[in-house]
Amino acid sequence: MDIKHRKQIRLKKYDYSDAGWYFVTICTQDKKKYFGNIINNKMILNQNGLLIKSNWKKLINKFRIELDCFIIMPNHIHAIVVIRQTDVVGVSFMKPEIKMTISKSNHHMHLLNNKKGLINQTPTIGLIIRYFKSKCSYELHKNGFSNNLWQRNYYEHIIRNSSIYS
Q: Whole-angstrom Cα distance, residue 77 to residue 25?
């Protein structure tokens, strides 16, 4: 029996929490048109699409990031996420409002959200996308959506200079 090996699509040894601009594409499962339709060359979002849009915009309330342009299509999203360098470098340099806990079961340190609900460590693109996909799936399933919403993984491209951006 042949086992299919998934191709790794991330750059080896690249730190995806590095400050920079990232172009991401997130697709629906089986490229199903869950977010609306294009009518007269204009994307018309349905209720699912409006929920996706709302959750995308709320990412800045959870992570220390900026959201540049984005577009929601019937079966995927294109967006630019900007990660800025933060002044949180390690445990000894943490801001006072950051709470810490040590799990007795596994002795790992965990950074918890501060009072504003922001993640205080510099997030990776993977963490941001994982959170977004989970939040959207949870909310849609809570409202009766029964299908798998997202395709596994996502696509990203690091925007290294302005010529790539334009």
A: 5
What are the tens digits of pLDDT across the range 34-64?
999 999 999 999 999 999 999 999 999 998 8
Per-residue pLDDT tens digits for 108-122? 334 444 455 555 567
Report yes or no on 128 lying in a domain: yes
- By the 10 Å C-beta count (0-12 exposed, 13-18 middle, 19+ buried), 160 is classed as exposed
Task: Give domain status of residue 102, yes or no.
Answer: no
- For 52-64, what is the HEC assignment? HHHHHHCHHHHCC
Alpha helical stretches, state H, 45-96: 47-57, 59-62
